[in-house]
Specification:
Elements lengths: L2 H25 L12 E7 H11 L3 E7 L12 H9 L2 E4 L8 H8 L4 E4 L31 H18 L4 H26 L8 E4 L5 H7 L2 E5 L13 H14 L3 E5 L4 H11 L2 E6 L14 H17 L1
Parallel strand pairs: 1-2, 1-3, 3-4, 5-6, 7-8
Bound molecules: zinc ion.
Zinc ion (ZN) binds next to loops.
Length: 318
């Protein structure tokens, strides 16, 4: 454990003690979670999951999302008020498989008894070594970026509906109806993505992005990942070496891709530099590991997918 991580854990523990002292009177009566017309308290770890929970739970749940729009879950540092949110939660939805490396500490330190649901449980996950050059590949490690395949989003929404209904059976009919309506929109989205992607000739369906976030998108919609600037499933390792950048530029030239993409969760300067040196265009920032801020073209999952796919199709066919 690094000094930084240890210091952070200590901070979280101190905050947690404070929160438990403050909350103790509320739990003294041993009342069930939803007594007195209280709403189910639900935590989603990041903005994309938060949108899914919001679509299914609507106004029946009291939802807190930990990593905000535009935030990077790989490198996130929980804030003090988020210890309280986790402490009070009835239910926590997380991606799992290493996407939220701070969650175990936060959960343990908060003293929370919330049920944790990893929405990737039971999914057909991609092994982390799917791409040559991924430097953090280890046996048994899986790629967490499942939401870029709409089929996986559909599974996640079904998992959320079951999770909410089990914890709050009084509102199960509402959760089922909300999920049904949203699942119909996701099915439409999936058909639209396939139709749009078909506009790109198969041998031009090639992606270069900042970090390795599009493997599920590539598997579902027939793309090839040429390379990533960070050579990693995470963004934690900082800037790549000059040699890695030079290799990526070589790969971009050899693959004849017309454009590469930056992401809303990482610094676009490096991608601009790589694009300039490789003689290709830099497409618009894609929404990858987070939604965009409210009012942006990526402030919901449906909008994020529309934006990403339109941007990819435009950049790779022009
Ligand atoms: Zn990521």
């Amino acid at each position: 454990m690094s000094h930084l991580t240890l210091a952070r854990s200590r901070g979280v523990v101190l905050l947690a003690v404070l929160v438990i002292v403050l909350l103790a009177p509320a739990f003294a009566g041993g009342q069930p979670a939803l007594a007195g017309g209280q709403k189910l308290k639900v935590v989603a770890t990041f903005s994309v999951l938060g949108d899914f929970v919001h679509q299914v739970g609507g106004d029946k749940v009291d939802l807190s999302t930990i990593v905000p729009p535009g935030g990077d879950a790989h490198t996130f540092d929980p804030k003090p008020d988020q210890v309280a949110q986790v402490a009070q939660a009835d239910l926590i939805f997380e991606i799992g498989v290493g996407f939220e490396p701070w969650l175990d500490d936060l959960y343990n330190a908060s003293g929370s008894s919330a049920k944790r649901v990893a929405v990737t449980d039971g999914m057909n996950l991609i092994a982390a070594d799917h791409e040559a050059g991924v430097s953090d590949a280890k046996p048994g490690i899986h790629d967490p970026h499942v939401w870029h395949d709409v089929n996986n989003a559909i599974m996640i929404v079904q998992t959320i509906e079951k999770g909410l209904s089990a914890k709050d059976p009084a509102n199960a009919a509402t959760y089922q109806a909300n999920a049904k309506a949203y699942l119909a929109q996701l099915a439409q989205l999936n058909a639209w993505v396939k139709q749009e992607v078909a506009k790109i000739p198969p041998d031009q369906r090639k992606l270069v992005t900042s970090h390795d976030t599009f493997a599920y998108f590539a598997r579902a919609y027939g793309f090839q990942i040429i390379g990533t600037a960070f050579g990693s499933l995470s963004t934690e390792q900082g800037e790549p070496s000059a040699r890695d950048v030079a290799n990526l530029i070589k790969e971009i030239k050899a693959a004849h891709v017309p454009a590469i993409f930056a992401e809303n969760v990482s610094n676009p300067k490096l991608m601009q530099q790589i694009a300039d040196e490789a003689g290709v265009k830099l497409g618009p920032d894609l929404y990858t590991d987070a939604l965009g801020p409210p009012g942006s073209s990526g402030d919901t999952y449906l909008k994020m997918m529309h934006y990403n796919v339109s941007a990819i199709v435009t950049a790779l066919t022009s």
